[in-house]
Amino acid sequence: MVYELYYWPGIQGRGEFVRLALEEAGADYVDVARREGGMDLLTAALDTEEYPSFAPPFLKAGEMTVGQVANILMYLGEQHGLAPRTDPGRLWAHQLQLTIADLVTEAHDTHHPIATSLYYEDQKPEALRRAADFVETRIPKFLGYFARILTNPEPRDFLVGDKLTYVDLSLFQVIEGLRYAFPKATQRMEREYPALTALRDRVAARPNIAAYLASDRRIPFNQNGVFRYYPELDQ
């Protein structure tokens, strides 16, 4: 089976969390909207699916369509050995992924705190205040939480169990995104949470991920995605 991933072309965004899982699994997939005529297919799918998604990303797996990042990853994790086999383990991984989703939303809202329909320049004073709080209180709260999971009661290599899961891939992406959007703040905080940097490096070194990161399938970070770099927000 060849998966079909539906997400906006030209940005990593939330679709990147799904791409990383597909790449790590070595799964065959098509990034639909990056093909010629793909945007027409994406918009049509939003209108015609039996269970339509509110917004991309969504994934077609045969006759089934799955939407929402955490939901897609839970499905892929079960299909490709990227999730625990027990119900408590699967729910714990899903819980961590939902927490990552909260962090991603807060990161996005630093540059669009009022409305996504407005340009950043239309809400710059509010963005400055929102980003200051995000850097000072929210990033440390989230990163401290994940670092605690990796180190207590004793150091471990992965967040869930003794092997890599989709949650580790997603935390890798978050750290990469924070490094891009808030390089000064993230560098300071990574010194406080070396376990997170070690996890990031462990994921980056995995053969399938390393090959993906070096390929043209990996879209560079840019000013249209969830993580955006505005120097004035990086304090």
Give an account of the 3D structure.
The chain has nine helices and four strands; from the N terminus they run βαβαββααααααα. It is α+β, with helices and mostly antiparallel strands. It has a domain at 87-206: Glutathione S-transferase Yfyf (Class Pi), Chain A, domain 2. The protein has a four-stranded mixed β-sheet, with helices on one face.
Q: Whole-number radius of gyration?
A: 18 Å
Please count the beta strands (DSSP E, at least 2 residues each). 4
CATH fold description of the domain at 87-206: Glutathione S-transferase Yfyf (Class Pi), Chain A, domain 2
Strand content: 5-15%
Q: Number of helical runs?
A: 9
Return the structural class: alpha+beta
Largest sheet: 4 strands, mixed
Keywords for this entry:
single chain; 235 residues; alpha+beta; Glutathione S-transferase Yfyf (Class Pi), Chain A, domain 2; four-stranded mixed beta sheet; 9 helices; 4 strands; globular
